[in-house]
Structures are given as C-alpha cells and as structure tokens.
Queue: 2 jobs
Job 1
Amino acid sequence: PRFIALIPAAGSGSRMNNELPKQYLSLADKPMIYHALHTLCHSSHIFRVFVILAPDDNEWNCYDWSSFAGKLVVKYCGGATRADSVLNGLKAMQADGSIGNDDWILVHDAARPCLTIFQLDQLIDTLALDEVGGLLAIPVADTLKRADSNQRVMGTKSRNGLWQAQTPQMFRLGLLMDALSKVNSAAITDDASAIEALGLRPRLVQSDAYNFKVTYPQDLALAELILQKRET
Ligand code: CTP
Ligand code: MG
C-alpha cells in the first residue's frame, strides 16, 4: 500500500478573528498551509498530497505552488464541516483512480504548520503494519477541571491515561470512507472518532507539543517562533 496525505483546508478560521481564512495567514514569510505542505511533499514515504479547498476559495491561486508540482493535487470540494471536507476529499481520491481502498490516508490539518519529518516518520513506521491505524497525540500535562457556566469548578478529572489528539491521523482509504459516511459529521472534530464509532481502537503514537493547532490569534507568534528557530 501507498501513503497519501489529505489536507483539509476549507475552514474559515472563525476563532482566529481574521477575514482571511487562517490557512493563508502569513507565518514565517509564507501562507500557513505552505509549511505542512512542505513537510508532507518532501517526505519520501508520501506518494501524493491532496489539498481540499472551499469551493469559493479565492486565495490559493494568489501563490506559486510549483515547487510541490510533482505530488500536489488540489480539489475545490470542501464541505460544511471538517469531516465533510475530508469525506469529499476521499471521494475525489477514489474518482482519481490511482488510489486504492487499501492505501493509507494521512489526514493532516492545514493549521498544524510545525509538523516535522521526524513525527511523520514515527507515525508511518509505527502504523504501517497496523490493523486499524492511528494518530499522533501527546499525554495531557495540565490538571483538568470540569466547570459550570459560571466557571465554578465542579470537579477535577484525573489526567491519567488522557491524551490530546493531533494530526496526521492515518487510516486506510476504504475504512475511513466507511467510517465518515456513517457518522454525524457535525458531532466529531477528528477522523479517529469516526473509526472509534465503528467499534475499532486506533493506536496513539506519541508526538510533542510543537505540533499544536494554530487556533487563536496568539497562537501565530508561537508557531512563527518554532518555524524560525528551525530555519537557523
Ligand atoms: N476544515 C475544513 N473544512 C471545514 C472546516 C475545517 O477543511 N468545513 C479544516 C480547516 O481548514 C483546518 C482543519 O480542518 O485546516 C482543522 O479545523 P479548525 O482548526 O477547526 O479550522 P477552522 O474550522 O477553519 O477554524 P474555526 O473552527 O476556528 O472556525
Ligand atoms: Mg473548525
């Protein structure tokens, strides 16, 4: 089987509070999505990289992507939720003809620009022979509180055994399509939960905090620091 990356990039970035969708915000002199694309396209494991854009995306064509030409496929088939965008992307892959149901799909957020080749290799090496597939994740470090709507603590939850899910999340094309077609796409925020809903148990592969998701305005400066430090 081959390894194919799928980058859902059809969101609007509402929590970022910027008119420009966050995947295009400038980060270390490039649009944010450039960084994940660069890592995925330069991995010798990855056969092809599909980018899923909103049907009305006006930004993508403002940039020069020719350095990724050998692997990059762009589809304007994003949906209303992340899960819809991923499912539409998987359908586009199937229609493409060159990708089979047993090939591995690595779904990676455009908003995780600090993914490294090392983490990507760890994920692929750990899961290439796995029955189910899995995802990058990190053990929860902080103490967890449940609160009411007045921010009064109702209880403390043990963080023992709790992990934060990241991406890439890696599953076989046929299984992931089956899983995502069956879930309520508005109720899930990652791909693994659709697999879990089938009764399967994805494997966690330990990553690190650098692979965080850029979500709020203050996340931009942190991502930029990480990327700049690597360049030097
Ligand atoms: N995404 C997508 N299609 C959607 C919603 C999200 O392809 N309908 C993508 C985003 O572009 C992003 C990834 O899924 O790369 C992770 O989603 P998130 O961080 O939630 O991004 P947004 O949905 O754009 O941001 P927000 O939730 O703050 O609006
Ligand atoms: Mg979102």
Note: Residues 11, 82 surround magnesium ion (ligand 2) (CB under 6 Å).
Job 2
Amino acid sequence: MSMNLTQKIIAAHLVSGEMAPGAEIGLRIDQTLTQDATGTMAYLQFEAMGVDRVRTDLSVSYVDHNTLQMGFRNPDDHRFLRTVAAKHGVIFSPPGTGICHQLHLENFALPGATLVGSDSHTPTAGGIGSLAMGAGGLSVALAMAGEPYFISMPRVVKVRLEGRLTGWASAKDVILHLLGLLTVKGGVGKVFEFAGPGVATLSVPERAVITNMGAELGATASLFPSDERTRAFLASMGREGDWKELCADADAAYDDEIVIDLSALVPLVAQPHMPDRVVPVAELAGLSVDQVAIGSCTNSSYADMRMVAEVLRDKLVHVGTDTMVSPGSKQVLKMLAAEGLVEPLLDAGVRILECSCGPCIGMGGSPVSGGVSVRTFNRNFEGRSGTKDAKVYLVSPLTAAMAALHGQFTDPATWGTPPAQPELPAKAPSIRHLFVFPPADGSGVEVLRGPNIVALEQFTPMDDTVAAPVVIKLGDDITTDHIMPAGAEITSLRSNVPAIAQHVFGRVDADFVARARAAGTGVIVAGDNYGQGSSREHAALAPRHLGIRAVIVRSLARIHRANLVNFGILPLILCDRADYDRLTVGGTVTIPASSIIAGGEVDVQVEGVGAIRVRNDLTQKELDIIRAGGLLNHVRLSRKQ
Ligand code: F3S
C-alpha cells in the first residue's frame, strides 16, 4: 500500500493501535529532548519511576531558557540537570551553548526518527525529516524510561509548495501565511506534510522555520521530506552519514491538501496578541517601533543572522528602536565571527545577546511600557514579553531588520534589493566538544540538588463523586501563559511546586490562589481552545496542587489536555455550548466521577442551576490515569501488577 511520509515513519515506530485517523496509537521514541524550564520536573519524574538509565537511542538536556542565573535557583537547577543527566545517560548542553531546537537540528536530529521534547516547538526537527512532537515533561520522562508515546493517529495534510520565494518574502512568511489561512486552531489533530516542487527551493533551516511555527497552528507535527538539501545540511554539520532519503510515495493519499504558491508571498506580520492575526507588512507602514528582537528557536540560524548583518551593514539602527540579536547557537555565532559579520551588527548599534531564548521567554529584553516590539519569534501572547501592555508583532528577520533601521514599519515596495539567501558553508565549525556526554556507567554519579528542587507530592486517586466549587470562569483562547505565567521570577520555581503554585492565574485574577486554597478543591470553567500555547505542564500540575479536579470547557488545546490527564484533572466538554453561561464562580459542581465512561456523556449537577450535560473524549486508559490520580500513580500501579 502506498503511504505518505508521516504514515511511513509512524508505521516504522508503531507499537500499539491502528493507523486510522483519531485512533490512539503508541509509538516507540528514538530521541528525547528537554529544556531547563520543563526539564527539572521531567527528570524528577524520571527519577520517581526508578529507571537507572534512559532507554532511548539519544536523549539531550538543554539549558536555554533561564540562563541568566539570577539568584541561586537557576544555577542550582543547572547543576541538578548536569548531574542527573550524567547519572542516567543523558547528553547535557550547558547554558549559553544555544537554543534547544537550533542545537538539536544542527547536532542530533535524524531523518525518519521519532523525537519527543518537553517544549512545544520540538516539531522544528520536522525540517530535517524527524517526526518531532512537543509533549509534557511527564510524557518525555516516560519516553526516556522506554515507554511508548501515545497520540491520536493524526490526519495528514499535504501542503504542496509551488514556485520559489522572491523579493523580501522568506520562510517565515510561508508559515505566517498558513496561520492567517488556518488560524491557531487549524492544525489540531493534524500533521502538515510539505511536498511539491517548492520544497527543493528551501534549505533545512528555512524548512525548520516553517515546522517550528506549525506549533502555533496547534499541529501534532510538521514534516519535510529528506532530500539532497537535507544531505547538504547534514554534510555541512559534519553528519553526512546520518542522511537517508525519505519521501512520500508518488500516489500517497492525504486527508486534505493545501497549495501555496511561494512566488506570490509578500512579507507578512502577525499582530498582537495572536500569531494568526496576519496582515501584509505594507498595511502597517508608519507604525512606530520601540524595540526589535531577532532570534528565538524560529529565526536564529546562520542564514537568518547573516541576512540581518547584510541589511544593517554600514548603517545605524534607529535611535528610538532598541535592537537586539540572539544567535541560535555558538556554532551560528562562530560562523558570524569567522566571516566578519559580528562587526556590522555591533557598528549598527545592535545589542548581541547570549545564544539562548532570552527575550522570547521574558528573560531580559522586555519592551517599554505600552511599547511596540517587533520580533522574529513565534508567539506574541499578551504579557509574554515581560511588559503587560506591550504589543508584540511577529515578522521575518528581514522585516525586523528594516523596522530597526527605520524605527517604524515601512512598505516593502520601498526596500530595494534584498540580500541573497546565503548557502551554508561546506563544513561548518563544530561545537560538539561543548556538550557533556554521559559516562558509560552513571551509578557512581552523585545528583546534586539545591533547596529549590522539591520532591514531587503523590496525588490522591479521584473520589467516586467530586463536589467542588467553580473557582474561576474564563473566556476563549486562554493560554498556558495565562494559567501559569512565565518570566524569570516564576519559572525559577518550576521544580518547587508549592512555591510556583502561588502564581497560578496571577495575571488574570489576583485572588484566584487564595480562593482555591480556601476551597481546598475546585473546578475551572473556560470557553474555546482552553490551554493553547506552550507545553508548560505546570499549567496543569500547579492547579492540581491547589486542588483543581476538573475543567469544564467548550474546547481544549491538545498538549494541555494531555497534561491535565497526566496530573489527574478531568477535562469535560460542554455538550451544549450555551450552558457556559449557566456556570458561575462559587456554585458547587457535583460530578459523578465513577459513572463516567470513556468517550461518553454524563450529567453534572450545578448548585442553583440543575443538571448540565458534559462529554469527554478520553480513552479508557486516560480515564484510568485520571482515576489513579495521574500518570505517575498509574505507572507505579501497573509496574506493581
Ligand atoms: Fe525558547 Fe522561545 Fe523557542 S522560549 S524554545 S526560543 S519559543
């Protein structure tokens, strides 16, 4: 039977389930990655499973989020990550080496491999032909322990690329175009598989820009074939031996098809505060820009940085536009330095930041109050920049560089001739010696923990009947940033759940934590697409610590739904969307938990209102996990049996 590329990779890794769209499938996972903001918890969870050594082909622990080492917590976490990695057979990437997805693409990602990462932009590696998926830290911990990774068999959408990019349009504009077309909900349950003659016109780093922001579509993954461009990239990285050809069969079937004419694309911009609010840059001409930030896991490759340096060469950025650049890895920075491209950036008045996530996670580089920040990043949610009333616009590096020069958006028709898309050197300088490879036997390694590493609490199983008040009622498109805000102060507490839980919904409702703690239990009510955004599992773990036992919503985002299940929170969906209006804060909801069947409907009783019908889309296994009080309890139980 002919297969598309997604089906081929899934078939080669399938350990359970049928490859029918929507059916639960279990996949063998070849590689895992973690970053520090989610990694400490993933390794605490891995330790709790009692497995000595990772059972994947390759696992890497990157430190790229909280690299500034403010106070004792960040360095303590880094030391914990370094020592726990050595003990259990994980490669460690020290702070400052680069951003996890850029580094993984350069050094470890493989065509045809499965990769699960505790970061929602893990699909970046789809640019090289990996089936790469973002997951909660707990799922990654399980994959490291050799357990399968479970997903719903995705629907596969063929994105046929025709023509080639022209003028100032770039790979970023391809994915912004798709976001404008499909919205942030348009990819749920899908893999976007790129095909057609336009594919060969894009380098691996350009492909990775597109697969990176497939996460903003809510997609399970995005995938490019592995072809001669892939071979050239791997050869440049000194890894030509890792190349193999991979593509869909010529007559493969797809669930849907979209055609994009690359030659028709123009520079685009996603306006605040959602990545799908996309318009042509020309429409914003005249809008003043206070800050430009270039980098992130989306746009920090050598080619991106080089083109920015070419645009800014012998010029000065606008005096009112604070401009910063974060190269994606030390390899990128070394190449820029070797080719004399650091100097034009410095001379243009650019601030060169560390090779890390930096401003993307609010780790420095916050915009001025009420300011306009133009970023090459992937997310522009309210408050994420660290300045609550800032307005963040998402663009390509070329558009960002032009905004930096003019201090405002201008019409691309006035920009003149763009720099050429640079080729990668035949052999890029290696930074492989900077990774800390684990000893063959880690049994003698002592894991060093600071006071901020707090052992996990064991949650109680679900009672037969859950009676809990509605402790908060929210609207549509609530992100995991709304639930569990980021920023240096807060994320430094991620391995200390009682402390980080103090900040849940802190930017939405300052009284929430006190109300939830007073009730000792609670139900969250929300509208559509609850929990969209980053894979932050603390957005489920910390509410669970506060006693949250269920969410009742109109619809849920995929990764957050999985995290709710993993921590024993029941995700319930309103059968009648209008019932949302009947739920109010304070009213007790009584859920007959023991009567719930997987994929079924049930009446919940709402104080002062009466019965409200809810459904769930849980598998039997997911329901068992919730009843056990979460996945760790469930794994412990099943290992005892
Ligand atoms: Fe880092 Fe931002 Fe990407 S936080 S991993 S650069 S989305």
Note: The longest strand covers residues 155-162.
